[in-house]
Design goal:
Blueprint (H helix, E strand, L loop, with lengths): L3 E8 L10 E7 L5 H11 L4 H11 L5 E9 L3 H15 L20 H11 L6 H8 L9 H10 L7 H10 L7 H40 L5 H12 L5
Antiparallel strand pairs: 1-2, 1-3
Helix pairs in contact: 1-2, 6-8, 8-9
Length: 241
């Protein structure tokens, strides 16, 4: 099996500065067709900073140049990509990468405007059966721990669920029964999770009350120490000694 990969950069050929000319850093198992793939995505109208920049150059009669930065092992490519992105960013390169590199979207937070655009672009989109199978394949056979299931349950508490979704869940769980051991683990995990959530809420409530008390004291500088103490008991719900 081929365990090699390439870390590459897309550069603006009009810029002479070796750092500032670098606008994108990526990784690929095969570099021969990578530039043409980027060109295709740009002309298709893919909505990212990279392809906006790519199309801008094409409209000006210029095409980005692909430069190989390093040949690496495939298993190390994610770390190398992150390292190059961080290095060039530190040097002052204005990269159009959406992420810090590697797999996934580590470090990237989308703006509400970007989320809205993506949502609008995907409205009405339909997948073929083949596409659905490809998307579902990696999740087949995936198993969650009892603790993970308990966390998911707590996270979903209070979220509105449509009748159609309820019916699907009911149908999927038909015939499923937990063993006594599974039930005991699930109950213990739920108890621990709910206790943690309860502690967080209590801490948040106390903090809000304390802030309110400080505001009241600041608005009433004429209060004596006894009046301040009484207000503290009232706001924080404390009992007098």
């Amino acid at each position: 099996m081929n365990d090699s990969a390439v870390i590459y950069a897309l550069v603006d050929p009009r810029i002479s500065d070796k750092v500032k000319r670098v606008r994108y850093i990526g990784k690929s198992r095969s570099i021969s067709h990578r530039l043409s793939e980027h060109r295709y995505q740009a002309k298709k109208g893919t909505n990212t900073y990279l392809y906006h920049w790519f199309n801008k150059l094409l409209k000006e009669g210029v095409e980005p140049v692909l430069v190989v930065l390093r040949h690496v092992k495939k298993s190390w490519s994610a770390n190398w990509e992150k390292a190059y992105i961080q290095t060039y960013t530190t040097w002052g390169a204005k990269l159009v990468n959406l992420t810090d590199g590697g797999d996934g979207t580590f470090g990237h937070v989308m703006s509400e405007e970007t989320k809205a655009k993506i949502s609008e672009a995907n409205k009405g989109r339909k997948f073929t059966e083949e596409q659905r199978e490809r998307m579902g394949a990696p999740k087949k056979g995936r198993k969650f721990s009892v603790e993970h299931k308990a966390n998911l349950s707590v996270a979903g508490t209070g979220r509105p669920v449509s009748q159609k979704t309820r019916e699907k869940i009911r149908e999927a769980n038909k015939g499923f029964k937990m063993t006594p051991e599974q039930r005991a683990k699930y109950d213990a995990a739920m108890k621990k999770t709910r206790t943690n959530k309860g502690d967080e809420k209590r801490l948040t409530s106390v903090k809000a009350k304390r802030n309110r008390l400080n505001e009241m004291v600041a608005l009433n500088p004429q209060w004596t120490e006894e009046e301040k103490k009484a207000e503290e008991h009232r706001v924080l719900g404390l009992c007098k000694d």
